[in-house]
Amino acid sequence: MKVQVSAFLVLALACCVSAQATWSFKKFQDGVEVPLEQGPATELRSATLQKLKRIRNLPRRARANVDNPNDCGAAVTGTGFTSIVGTWNVPTIQTTGASPPGLLQWVGIDGLSETADAGIQGGTLSEIQDGAQVNFAYVDMLPAALQQAMLTVETADTITTNITTTSTTSGVITLSNETRGTSIVATVSGGTALSRTSAEWILQIAETSNLAPVLFSSVTVTGSAIASGTTVSLSKASVVSNFNSDCTAKLVGTTLEITDGSGGGGF
Ligand SMILES: *[C@@H]1O[C@H](CO)[C@@H](O)[C@H](O)[C@H]1NC(C)=O
Ligand SMILES: CC(=O)N[C@H]1CO[C@H](CO)[C@@H](O)[C@@H]1O
């Protein structure tokens, strides 16, 4: 019996576990490298990141039940997307319910083609812990679990995230806190090959397609992408919203305005 179990495990590993992306991090203060306060990977302090990590590790079929369409923002589609940059303010959030979901703000490449199970993204997320809002920075490249980036993020901070792919399976994500002068440079390799067919600026609720439990103050996003060497303005993007009236994404010139349809804009 024991032999059978380990034979099964070996088979399972051989057949289904794809290569994991590997990450390395550097931290800068006003352009000067400083020590990274990177704790052990098991000590993710964000409940949302832990939750998303558990989901990521589920078998694909089980994951389908929790991979709901839960994005609000804008995206450009086409070919040859190699880079995206986005700057946004971290919103104030309020939540209701026993296990309130977190709210993620991110930019990414191939984030819309999740069926291909490929994508690279980076950004910030906000959640409520013991009644108070806490914010984190994170990076993500499938198929590995999301990685917390040790960047201090406070509510209302202005964050710029630049993702630049160096091949279809590698890239560099720079998360900069414009308010504090701190940045994290995260380098990844070995991810699932990207098709580089979309670039997106997104606000996402974790693990549900219902935005009702979260109220958020408006998020203003600026940015651009690069496709085949040419800059693509955010003004060329199409609005994405899976929340009906719960979230409104609107392009006003080169600015993306994301507002809560259920009254959160009143913060
Ligand atoms: C991201 O940063 C790289 C390196 O500084 C730069 O070459 C690229 O233009 C930036 N991406 C965008 C979309 O501006
Ligand atoms: C390096 C850097 O981006 N520094 C900025 C930090 O934030 C302050 C306030 O927004 C700016 O004045 C600095 O230029």
UniProtKB/TrEMBL annotation:
GO terms for biological process: proteolysis. One of its GO terms (molecular function) is glutamic-type endopeptidase activity. Residues 1-19 form the signal peptide. Pfam families: Peptidase_A4 (PF01828). Keywords: Signal. The keyword Cell inner membrane does not apply. It comes from the Eukaryota. This is Acid proteinase A. It comes from Mycena chlorophos.
